[in-house]
Write a structure and sequence with these properties.
Elements (H helix, E strand, L loop, with lengths): L2 H32 L9 E2 L8 E7 L6 H11 L4 E4 L1 H6 L1 H9 L3 E4 L12 H17 L18 H8 L4 E2 L15 H11 L5 E4 L7 H16 L3 E3 L1 H4 L3
Parallel strand pairs: 1-5, 2-3, 2-6, 2-7, 3-4
This protein binds zinc ion.
Organism: Paenibacillus methanolicus
InterPro entries: Glyco_hydro/deAcase_b/a-brl, NODB_dom, Polysacc_deacetylase_ArnD
GO molecular function: hydrolase activity, acting on carbon-nitrogen (but not peptide) bonds
Length: about 240
C-alpha cells in the first residue's frame, strides 16, 4: 500500500469514527431527553414514594370543547384531577378553562405553544413557562401550578430553569393511551391501568381531542377499577404532599 492509499484509509477511518461517535451522542441525548427517571438538573417526579393507596389522574393538553364531558365524569365520580393545559389553548377556550378551575381541579402548566423544549434558548423556555403561569393566574386560580413539559421532553435548559425556580418536572408512570396496541380500546386501557397503578402512581391520559375518544371512555372504568382495589384519588400536588 503506498503512502497515498494509507492516508486515504486513515481519513476514511477517522470520518467513519466521527460519524458513529456523533450518532451515539445523538442517540444518547435523545434517550436522555425522553427519560422518565433521570435528568441532568433538578427533580423529576414520575410517581410519589408512599405506602398510601392513592394515585393522581392527570390529563394533558387543552382545554378544548371536550372539557365539559371530562368535568362531568369526574364530578359524578367525586374525583379531583390535575390538568396540564397549554397557554395557547387556555386563551382560545376561556370558558373551558374557567370550568376546570371552578370544578376545583388542579391546573398544571404544559407550556404555551406545546413546542418540544429541547435545544431551545433559555429565553424561549422562560417565556413559554412564565406566560402560561400568568394566564393560569389571570383566571383567578390560586392553587399550586405543577409543570409538565410537552411530550415529556427535556434536556438541559428546561431542567436548569425549573431547578432555579424550585420546580420539578412532573412526568408519569402509567400511560395507557401511549401504548399503541391498547390505545384504541377503552376496556384494555382500563385493565392496563388497574393492573399497573401502584401507591403513588401518576397516571397520564389525553381526553381533549376527538381522536382520544377511547381515553375519555376509559376514565370511569379506571376510577371504578382502582377504587375497587382500595385506591383513592389526589391531585399531583396533594400526592406530593404540597
Ligand atoms: Zn401534551
Amino acid at each position: 500500500m503506498n503512502k497515498r492509499m494509507k492516508r486515504l484509509r486513515r481519513t476514511l477511518l477517522i470520518t467513519l469514527g466521527t460519524v458513529i461517535g456523533l450518532a451515539l451522542v445523538g442517540y444518547g441525548l435523545l434517550k436522555l431527553s425522553g427519560s422518565r427517571e433521570f435528568q441532568l438538573y433538578g427533580g423529576i417526579v414520575n410517581h410519589v414514594e408512599t405506602s398510601e393507596k392513592a394515585v393522581a389522574l392527570t390529563f394533558d393538553d387543552g382545554p378544548t370543547g371536550r372539557t365539559e364531558e371530562i368535568v362531568s365524569i369526574l364530578r359524578e365520580e367525586g374525583v379531583k384531577a390535575t390538568f396540564f393545559l397549554t397557554g395557547a389553548e387556555m386563551e382560545a377556550n376561556p370558558e373551558e378553562t374557567k370550568q376546570l378551575i371552578e370544578a376545583g381541579h388542579e391546573i398544571g402548566n404544559h407550556s404555551y405553544s406545546h413546542d418540544r423544549m429541547m435545544f431551545k434558548s433559555p429565553s424561549f423556555v422562560k417565556e413559554e413557562i412564565e406566560q402560561t403561569d400568568a394566564i393560569i393566574r389571570s383566571y383567578g386560580y390560586e392553587g399550586p401550578i405543577p409543570f409538565r413539559p410537552p411530550y415529556g421532553k427535556k434536556l438541559l435548559v428546561l431542567p436548569y430553569y425549573l431547578h432555579e425556580h424550585d420546580r420539578q418536572t412532573i412526568l408519569w408512570d402509567v400511560e395507557p393511551d401511549s401504548i399503541g396496541e391498547i390505545a384504541g380500546d377503552a376496556q384494555r386501557m382500563v385493565d392496563h391501568t388497574v393492573e399497573h397503578a401502584k401507591p403513588g402512581s401518576i397516571i397520564l391520559l389525553h381526553v381533549m381531542y376527538e381522536s382520544r375518544t377511547p381515553s375519555m371512555q376509559a376514565v370511569k372504568g379506571i376510577i371504578d377499577g382502582l377504587r375497587s382495589k382500595g385506591y383513592g384519588f389526589k391531585t399531583v400536588s396533594e400526592l406530593m404532599g404540597e
